[in-house]
Amino acid sequence: MHIHRLEKIWIVVGITMLGVFLVVVGIGAFAMGMQPPGSHHEQHGGHTGAIDPDKLDETPPFDNPRLVQIGDNEYNAYMVGYAFGYSPDKMEIPVGATVHFQITSSDVVHGFQIPGTNVNMMVVPGEVNYLSHTFTEPGEYLILCNEYCGIGHEYMATTIIVS
Ligand code: CUA
Predict the structure, then answer these.
(1) In the structure, what pLDDT confidence band is assigned to residue 47 with cuts at 50, 70 and 90?
(2) From ligand 1's centre to the CA of 96, what distance in Å?
(3) Model-level pTM greater than 0.90?
(4) From the alpha carbon of 123, which atom of ligand 1 is closest?
């Protein structure tokens, strides 16, 4: 089949446009996928999508649960709930600190409640739940599990010390 020169040009232009379109869509999707959990509605809490609960020890940031200072008296707390405790198991922050909690579970569904505050969320394997709180009063705050998760449920707790 003979293809006219002009038709050839249009075919090339069409394929090029399609290629550019696919690259743009691909970059957009990739950029969204790379957005750190909680970067868009930190103040309200919520959850982000799939994470493999069996591979937390090789999935940053949950391979290394910790408290990280990210600003002037502002922290990210990367946490893992498990039967029957939380990691990291003890945190200390200054008065007035805002903490962005991000937590997932390595086994079953747990709870995450700080009595005396409005902090209350579920800890779900396969999901990252997040919620922010500003600790304006000094004290020792209990973080406890409020979802029945097994024989050690009532002992599942940790503390956050505000001073
Ligand atoms: Cu964990 Cu109840």
Answers:
(1) confident
(2) 28
(3) no
(4) 1
